[in-house]
Amino acid sequence: MFWWVLYYGVFKLQIVTQKDEIHHYLATAQPKVEVEVVLESKPKIQAETEAIKESIPDVTATISHSKYIDLLQDLMANKQLYKNPLLSRLDLANELGISEGYLSQAVNKVTGKNVIQFVNEYRVSLVKELLSNPEFDKYSIEAIYSEAGFNSKSVFYNSFKAETNMSPGMYRKSYTKAS
């Protein structure tokens, strides 16, 4: 029993260490221009939201769903909100200045998915990018999916398989053989 606990602790420490290395690599590999875009985009999005609210009396009833989805996609791309494993519908709704219910309705009507599926698509996209990059071959799949914002192995595997029709290991091998 002692050895199992020791092994498990060392294994988890290794995953956390790898996740930190991936995070550091991604943070330093991003050009400074993207950081400026992120810093510039929040005031722009907030200004757009405020302008819409001021010009239309009942925003949630009259603005199109697709406008909020466009804003949400900008937030996901620029701020990488999906990397937060504790990200909730409320967090996203607050970023957009709308209610959780309206967010769910907008995502469902425009994309045909629920909010969790929408967020997980961004996470899977990042995992696919990292698994296909030879520089990340030294990291475990668990460290990579943790960095992408997944906090559950089963949710990650189900989301990944639904999008790619293969397991993460098979996906990685397909890129290892190709290079």
Helix content: over 70%
Low-confidence stretches: 32-39, 58-62
Global shape: elongated
What number of domains?
2
Largest sheet: none
Order of helices and strands: HHHHHHHHHH
Helical segment count: 10
User: Separation of termini?
Assistant: 42 Å
Q: Tell me, rounded to a whole number, the average pLDDT.
A: 81
Strand segment count: 0
Class by SSE composition: mainly alpha
Describe the structure concisely for a colleague.
With 179 residues, this protein is mostly helical.
Polypeptide structure, described:
This protein has 179 residues and is mostly helical. It has 2 domains: 1-30 and 113-179, no CATH class; 32-75 and 89-107, no CATH class. It contains 10 helices and no strands. It starts with a helix and ends with a helix. The model is unreliable at 32-39 and 58-62 (pLDDT under 50).
Topology:
Elements: H1 2-29, H2 32-55, H3 59-62, H4 65-79, H5 89-96, H6 100-111, H7 115-131, H8 141-147, H9 153-164, H10 168-178
